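Q: Hi! First time doing this. I have a protein sequence and I read that you can turn it into a structure. Is that right? Here it is:
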Amino acid sequence: MKKEMKNWLRSSIVLALAAGALVGGSSVQAANTYDMTQGEFLTNGLNYTTTNTYQDRDTLIYKWDAKNKKIIGGNVSVGQDVLNSSYEGVNVNLVIDASDLSSMSNDDVKEAMTQLASKIKNYAETNRYRLNAYVQVREGLTASSKVLRSYQLEYKTPGWGDPDQEIKPDANVGDLAEGVFATPIINGAAGSEYEFDENGVWRYKGFSGAVDVNFTTPATDNVYAAIRTDGKDTGISNLTENSSFNSTLQMNADASSLADSKAYLAYSGTGNQVSVIANELNATVKGTEATGIYAGHENGDTTSKVVVNGGINLTLDGKKTTGVEAGKNGEVSLLTGQKIYNRTNTVSIESPNGHAVYAHDGGKVTLDAVKVKKADKSAICAEKGGNITLGIVSGLTDESISTDDDAGSQVSLSVDGNYTGQVKGNVNVAFTKGSTYKADNDSIGTVTLNGSTWDGSLLRDNGSVSINSNGQWNMGETGRGIKLSALTGGKTTASRGYVKMGSDNLHIGTYSGNGTFIYDHDASDPTKILGGNITIEESKPLSLSSTDLGDKGDSTAEGTSASTIAIATDSAGIDTTDNALVEKVLDNLASKLAYLNYTKGERNLSGTVELLEGLTSSSVTKHFANLTFDEKTGQAKRDSEVYHPYVTYITGDASIDTAYADAYNADTNTYDFNQDVFIREAKSTDSVYSGSLYYGLITNYGTEYEKPSKGFGMWKSAKPDDGPSYTIDLHGNNLTVDLEAFPEAKTTGSQPMWTTAAIMAAREGTIKITNPGEVHLTCNANYYYGSAIRASTSAGTTNGAHVVIENDQGNLKDHIVYLRGGIDTPGYQLDYRTIETYGNAKAKDITQENSVYIKGLVDIEADKHAAVFARGGWIRLGGGRISVDNYDALWTAGKGRIDINMLVDDDGTVKGAGSNDFVLKGNAVTVTPYYGKNGTLNLAFTTANSRFDGETGGTGEQNLYVQNGAVWNNTPESYNIWSSGEVVKSDLASIATHLYGGQDAAHTGYLIQDSAKDLTIKNYSGFMKAYIARDESKSAGEDGTDATSQFSQKGNIIIEKADQTDGQNADFTLLTSQEGIDTSNKEEVLSVMKDLAGKLIYKEATDSENPAVHLNGHVGLAEGLIAGSVETRLADLTFDGKSDGTGSVVDSTYQIPKNYPAILYGPKETAMMRGAKSAMASTAMIWRAINNDVERRLGDLRVGNAEKENGMWAKVGAGRMSYDEGTTDFRTRFNEYHIGYDHAVGNAGWRAGASVSYIDGKSTYEKGTGDNDVTNFHVYATKTMQNGAYLDIIGRVSHAKNKYHIMNDAGNKLDGDYGTNGYGLSAEYGKRFVKDSGFYVEPQAELTWGRLSGKSYDAASDYGGGRALHVDQDDFNSLIGRIGVGFGLVKERSSIYAKLSLLHEFQGGFDTQYTAKGEPSNATHMDFDGTWVSAMFGGTYQLGDRANFYGYLEKTYGGDLKTDWRYNVGLRFTFNRS
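A: Yes, that's right. Below is the predicted 3D structure, encoded as structure tokens:
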């Protein structure tokens, strides 16, 4: 057809379509088609005028002149009137035919589209966006022609980004809105249809589109991929930024017409990266082999990658199919850092003839969710070092998950659904909540049950199992036992892991978490527990982690929680009223468990044995006992006490509290308990509503509880008034309440809002507990909020909600209320407060505030959370112990008030301090980090056993009583940073609103100023002594303002106002340790005192309006920095010498206190010297005592015929000696071990021998202990004469040592390691006169000399950061003379004897010198001379021809050194002379 005919035909069609239609206005305008290349449209163009109804999209036909690169056709004009009049505006497509283009390359298309866009002008000044115009390339020019490319035109609008911009009618070509493509996506390919960004990604933002690649020409590498690399990174993305209206893209790669073809959706094989980012991408791949996604670089050493994100659906059609594959040097992974709106990252795979996911030759696949629609039996497979890590995998039923035996091959994934397939190799497989796994596991990886069930066994050793959220493992049978490298239980005690034991023994290398191991028992004999034993090698606390913490959500905190284990069986068939039977069943349950590392001192596991109602995770514990472990074997044993807990709450309404019907007394509205009471319950999301919840075990909700469709809940009562009041009378019995409240975790910021407490007063009324024994209250939680006791209501009430425990009768220590619990979840620990009250908005006075009143003692331990928090309300405690690690101990906010050990009248007025012990560790403040400030603290430390370690301050009142020897150590405490888990020292500037000291000097209180910041006392009265440590590296200044002050590292003590008591001034003494100070040098002492005086500032003394001084100040030195240390030097202070009230020393008042005992420091012996001297002396005396020890052996030789034969002998013994004379004091017990051999020499009656002995001694001193050791080597000879006379000669060398540890009265320590060598020589002459009866008398004389060499050494002290005491010990010489007489009787096979001796030491001087840096040298002298008497009794018995047993007992009398007793027993073996 000629060109003219074509143009005529096209014009005719257009005119026909346009007949009867006007561009101006009509009620409904149908779509029109205009040929802009003909007639008046070519000449005059097309103008759109006013329209006020919807206008369908018009089609305007243009022609592209490829040769001249221009558009043929008339212009289009849109005016302001049409865009103002219709919200729908003008909708129009400007189109050209694809046949007009030289090619469909991106460059050719964009060039034509840019020209085409210039044909339409937007002249409107407002509502410009109502021109909705597209430029398009179509396959033909009819209305139904396929759109190959479509771009929306964009017009700038003033005020949108640039208010001053000029209004221009021209359009910009926007993003591709629709397209159909037919070629592979390859970055860098010549003539590509695709436009790539700087990262090589083709970004398709249309609402729909298709890439349909039909391969018909064979490729050299036989690879046919819709997306592939060719030396550059490439990829696709069909996401619209910041929009939920993302498109669906259809992609097809069809190589089925080619022989042996390998077809892919995405292929990365050149060491580059392919990105597949899709809201939803539906892909079909056809070929002989069809693979969805592949990454690998078989012939290179760089990594080929494919990254994916979004929803990708793979349908594979081929003889061999694979969904996702990573080969050598290949990685397929999830793109991180980008989240698609309302879209889970899921790869859906239909691979009927092969793997769904496959990694091999070191390749790695890491994906999020995977849905397996179809795969062969080997669905997930890793080989030859391949690694697969997947999120939740759904759709698997009986397909396998496996690796080969290569050490580098691994698969990790979670399975959702019911699975019966094979798991083999090195596979970590988890199962989602509600899923089931029914098969044996042939893997060395980890099986994780997240609220799921597994019926099966482990076929390989050293795998591991993790069971969370009440999941259960029903162990199968292997017949060989199961050995796990690790078993991890649930994160909480209420969300445990359960193991139903089979007949196999279970060996666990490392156990952590919370687990329950359930056994069957014999129906006819319930004491027979059926199932294998459990052996745990080591146990560890469970590691916990919380993410997305902090103000920016970018912090992570780590923590741990304790590990617990329960061994349980069903109570069915057991007469639980038979206590003996119950105990026997529990005993036999305990026998099933052993904890081996308990024998090595490990203490990381606590446990119970339990009888349950049922054998599932929802079973209730009805009877239990705690477990202990044998220290030698680790075998578990039942503790003696068996508990029979209640397992539900008390509300105060008898109609609800049916479990307590037997205890309820309606006449008195009392729950009477005549035995110990245990209330125990564990709550989790499975059993209780998971949203906001208020829950307690002893409550006063009454009928105002709510029961949702899922489990039981107590919400914060909407009717807080008129709640029940009732009494629990324990009649002297113990009460234990244990609530474990652990909802399932959600995401940070959306965690479940459970508020739980063991005792919770939540409505108006009083819960009173009377006549208790001990009370133990515990509540453990994991998120918001937890307490052991809580009093709060949802709205104000007339009289408030109250908890009262009357434990103030009898011996207070028999009725302590122990409060425990907390939150272990990192980042949430501060949401627990052991005791908490909220304010009552309707309270008219303190007595109507919500309150907790424990009249007696408490014992509270807390970590990383406040122990007591009056968030409004009133908390009163009688005293006791509150110990908090890593957080503040006491908080108040609003009108909250805390009184501890205070005397208060009925209207709440404080009358004074109580007299109970009170120990507090942790800060006490009237300001909180997140919950407000103000309030009042009244704290009384009024006994010598009372102590406060911590700081105080805030915006409220902090009133402290420190009296009668109590101590306030104003020291920084550790503080846990909730968002990171970091523990830091937090140093406050303490402020005491009132500080009340003792009534007089004899009842003073003590203050240790250990803070680097100033301590401010607004009002002070009474008597106190304060201690401040010195920095000896600095020289003493004249006052506290000197930069070189030895006290500059500690803050000042500032007293703003002092009050008189009964007309007597307040009294305050500043002290420091005299360590390192030459106290004999008055000038040195005064210099330090003046330096110290600058630390006390008395503001009232400088008040120009009222300069009255009501404070007596003193400064001095003390033995140490321990409260109550003896004061050694004192002087008075004056405060009128300086404008700021700083103290100044009055030199003329310098004194040595009259009661100072001059035996500790100065020219006399110090306690350290006494201790060191005693330690060395004890060693010397052991050495001396055994100086002639061989003499006993030589005496034995003269009994019977022993002197005629060779002999080997050994003996053991022990003894005790003591010395307490002057300033030397020691008591030593020792064991001795001795072995020797002797032999006849010639025929003249001589015998010679040698022996070795070892003495092991333990000594105690005045204030210390020591370990004594003496090792000796002896040589000896004896000559026996025919007339009964004998001569003995003995020589020896020795090594003596002593490691000692001593203290002085101030608690300072000294550690010494003393060792030296010794020598000795002795000679004895005697003669035995024997009667025919065997009786003999033997007079004796002996002289023994010895020398213990001198020794110089340093003993380490804790003075001044570890200053040494240098000791010079002189030689110790001993010369002892002895005369004595022995009496004995010798029989054929035995002999007995007694010996009495008089001994005298002719030497015995013991001299020592001591020096220490900064102190004068000193010396000590002891004399160990003197005379004493020794009495000995012994005997010998012949056991056979060659063996004799012998022994003796010895004691000394008189003399300073006493041998209280000493014995030896031994054996002698004799041989014929050769």
